[in-house]
Amino acid sequence: MFGAADPEQAIAQLEAYYREGRGERAEVMASALVDQLMAQKDRDDDTQGILVKGLRILAGVLNSRQKYKRARITIGLLHKHRNKHGKAMGHDFVTAAADYHLAGFIHANAGKKSAAKKAFSKCEKLQPGHLAAALDVAEQCGYVKTLAKLYPLAGPVISKNGTYILEIEGRPAADARRIGAVLGGEVQADIERQISAIMAGEQAANARLQAAVDSLVPTHDYHTYSTN
User: Fold this and answer.
1) Which residues of 180-207 are buried (b: 16+ CB within 10 A; e: fewer)?
2) In the predicted structure, residue 223 carries a pLDDT above the cut 70
């Protein structure tokens, strides 16, 4: 199907189809690309990298199209070939964490809660402080321990693009109200208080950023200036 076409261009096209919701076309093309590359016995590092990208897209497409059995097989191949590529080119733990995050959803959607929990946990292990994965394992598998541990590290609620999030700095954010719904009690009440304060203008939309900006504002001790 792809012939001599630039593999990177093929990947870009697949990503575009996936983003646009053209799942059937993305599935057909990604499957063809993966099959073509898997058939090559002596893949160089660049080709192995393209295979990994193709498997990643295919796993996501299959999950979105509710083809969970194939998605589980594909995500397993993705882990295998990503690790092989990582040994040659260096491991990207952030990308690997995202792959395990996707794997958690695939396993959960397939009704494999134990496998889902392991995948979400692996995601958080590779990228400590991954609040989104902690929330997802709580919602999908009923395991709230990690979320309860990470929540105090997240700082104040942030208003961003019309939603309210919690975020451990430098890590993927999670929906604040969903966290409140899972943890309940005082946590939920505090989150709702913060959201109300942001809406009323009594709390900065991003208190962490505001504090950082305020710290850059120079202060003057006018008493040090001579009046002479």
Assistant:
1) bebbeeebbeebeebbeebeeeebbebb
2) no
